[in-house]
Every structure is written in structure tokens, then in C-alpha cells.
């Protein structure tokens, strides 16, 4: 499943290149609870077609009605470049538009964004680049600038700047049953998924539509993918010959998450092995996670995959998890000393 922002921008580009009128809607401020975070975008075509979302649906319905019915008393004016709209100011409005109690959000509406600039933006995202898109609030003029790191939306008196990036990527080492569950979840979360396994007996039964399956050695796959700050690497084979070198290769990259499945004992053994035989130190292994996942009492492969995916998303979203959710810490507290599920995931 493609990154949602890229999907919205691609659809908007196609509509504008075809000469269709369209609206780009961006969530620029929220107060209280909000169904969608700041920076979320939606594209709305003149006939009511929608890609993306800014709420649970009611605000979209209101925007569709106001945009597709130009003669209505509250129709959106089409002679402007940009316009702000606010929803949920009163309790009655919040209830009407399905916003949580006390929730208010403000939107920036861009009328008929330039098709060629949208084409340039999509091309840069397809090439794996991170891009700042700056919109002037007086005239709607758009500027595209290269970005060095992901950034939050910035809104001031003169412009809105939203940062767009390519898809998040997940490299899964191993094509076993758990890999199928994790790959499926990652795809639904908008990750581009590559599964690497040189073992034919595992590749033959792997079946997850949308995931790229490769037979190269894992460390070669890491080198080929060149992980960036929007990439995570998860080793699920339990085989040091496949996992260790790939993990070390990944640790030399800016990948935001690098980890391996296994019990506390197996993960401790991996660290000793890397230090004693692969010239690593505790400092060089500081970013290596294991056992991966959060402690949710998971035992079965799908539950363990949920645990791993939850931790990946927490790290991606900058959420610091409580220590009680750390698998190794909880197992130590429970005094199980390596017991529990075969993979020792919470």
C-alpha cells in the first residue's frame, strides 16, 4: 500500500494534468482532540471524488457539498488561491462534524494547485527525496525545496511549509510465517516492504501480495537498499549466518529502527558474538534492538507480529515507550530467565 501523502499528491497531479479543477486540503492547526494530525492532506475533485482525509468523514462531506455546489449559499469561493476553514468551534459544530468533545481543527484550502509543480513534487518523492513544499498565504504561490530531515508542518503569517517524503520502508530478513503477518501489517501502515531470504524452502511458501521478495543474501540486500532515516530493518530468521552481518550493515546506516527477534539469551549471545568476533563494541551496538516488540503477552506468530509492528510505529512516531513495555525488562521482572514464548516477545 502506497504512502498516503504520495497517493493523495499523485491523484491530485493526475486530475490537474487532465485539466480538472481540484482542491488540496491540509490540516494546519488542531485544538483538543482531533481525528487527523496536523499535516494531513486530502485532495477533492470538482465532481466530488476524494483521496485522503482530514477527519472521520463528516468534514469531508461538508467540503464536498460546498465545493461541488457553487451556487449554494455557503459554497467555497473559486476565485481565490488559498483560504482557511475552521471546524468544530462550538460544541454543536463538533457534534455535527463528528469531532471528539472539544475538538477543533483548521484547514488550508488550495484551489487548483499548479499541475507542473505537482508533477515535480511527485517525481522527487518517487526518486526517494525529502521535499519542503512552501505555500504563500497571500497568493498561493508554491515553492519546492530539498529537505535534509523530516519536519513538522510550519505555519506563520506568510506561508505554510509542509514536508513530504518518500514511503517508509521495511526490510524483513526471513520469509517465515511471522514475516507474512508483519509484512501484511506494514503494508497496511503504508510501508514499502522487502522480504529477503536466500533459503528456497522458505521463499516458496511466502505469499504476501504487495511485498517484494528477494533471494539475495541479507547483507547484500541491505547494501543494495541503502537504508535511510525512513527505513527499518527487522531480522526474523534466528540464524546468525543470515541475521548478524545484515544487522551490522544496517547499523552503519541512518535506519530509524534495527532489531532482531529472539529470546533475551539469544540476543545477549548475538551481542557477545559481534563484540568477540566482529570487532563491535557496546557503543556500536547501542542502536540494535532485541528482543524486538513490546510486552503485550503475545505468544502466537500474529500476536508477536502485532507487538513488533507496534514498537516500529512507536519509534517512527517518536513515542518513548514506558519501560514496563520493554520485553526484556518485563521478563526480568517476572523472573523467567529466558522462559516464555519461543521468540520471547511480550
TrEMBL record:
Limits of the XdhC Rossmann domain: 170-312
Signal peptide range: none
Pfam entry (one): XdhC_C
Domain XdhC- CoxI intervals: 15-66
Designated name of the protein: Xanthine dehydrogenase accessory factor
UniProt organism field: Melaminivora alkalimesophila
Family matches, as InterPro entries: MoCofactor_Util/Proc, XdhC_CoxI, XdhC_Rossmann_dom
Amino acid at each position: 500500500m502506497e504512502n498516503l501523502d504520495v497517493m493523495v499528491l499523485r491523484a491530485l497531479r493526475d486530475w490537474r494534468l487532465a485539466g480538472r479543477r481540484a482542491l488540496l486540503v491540509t490540516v494546519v492547526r488542531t485544538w483538543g482532540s482531533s481525528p487527523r494530525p496536523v499535516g494531513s492532506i486530502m485532495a477533492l475533485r470538482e465532481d466530488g471524488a476524494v483521496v485522503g482525509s482530514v477527519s472521520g468523514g463528516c468534514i469531508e462531506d461538508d467540503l464536498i457539498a460546498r465545493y461541488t455546489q457553487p451556487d449554494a449559499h455557503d459554497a467555497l469561493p473559486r476565485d481565490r488561491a488559498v483560504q482557511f476553514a475552521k471546524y468544530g468551534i462550538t460544541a454543536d459544530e463538533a457534534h455535527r462534524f463528528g469531532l471528539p468533545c472539544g475538538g477543533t481543527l483548521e484547514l488550508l484550502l488550495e484551489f487548483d494547485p499548479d499541475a507542473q509543480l505537482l508533477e515535480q513534487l511527485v517525481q522527487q518523492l518517487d526518486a526517494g527525496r525529502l521535499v519542503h513544499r512552501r505555500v504563500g498565504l497571500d497568493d498561493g504561490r508554491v515553492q519546492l525545496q530539498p529537505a535534509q530531515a523530516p519536519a513538522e508542518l510550519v505555519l506563520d503569517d506568510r506561508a505554510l511549509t509542509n514536508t513530504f517524503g518518500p514511503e517508509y520502508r521495511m526490510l524483513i530478513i526471513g520469509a517465515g510465517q511471522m514475516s507474512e503477518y508483519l509484512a501484511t501489517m506494514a503494508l497496511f501502515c503504508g510501508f514499502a516492504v522487502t522480504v529477503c531470504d536466500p533459503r528456497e524452502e522458505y521463499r516458496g511458501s511466502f505469499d504476501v501480495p504487495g511485498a517484494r521478495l528477494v533471494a539475495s543474501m541479507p547483507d547484500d540486500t541491505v547494501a543494495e537498499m541503502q537504508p535511510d532515516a525512513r527505513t527499518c530493518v527487522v531480522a526474523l530468521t534466528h540464524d546468525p549466518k543470515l541475521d548478524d552481518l545484515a544487522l551490522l550493515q544496517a547499523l552503519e546506516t541512518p535506519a530509524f529502527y534495527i532489531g532482531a527477534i529472539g529470546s533475551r539469551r539469544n540476543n545477549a549471545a548475538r551481542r557477545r558474538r559481534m563484540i568477540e568476533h566482529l570487532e563491535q563494541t557496546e557503543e556500536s551496538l547501542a542502536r540494535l534492538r532485541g528482543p524486538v516488540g513490546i510486552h503485550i503477552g503475545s505468544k502466537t506468530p500474529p500476536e508477536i507480529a502485532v507487538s513488533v509492528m507496534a514498537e516500529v510505529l512507536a519509534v517512527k512516531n517518536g513515542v518513548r515507550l514506558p519501560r514496563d513495555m520493554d520485553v526484556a525488562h518485563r521478563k526480568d521482572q517476572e523472573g523467567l530467565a529466558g522462559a516464555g514464548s519461543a521468540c520471547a516477545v511480550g
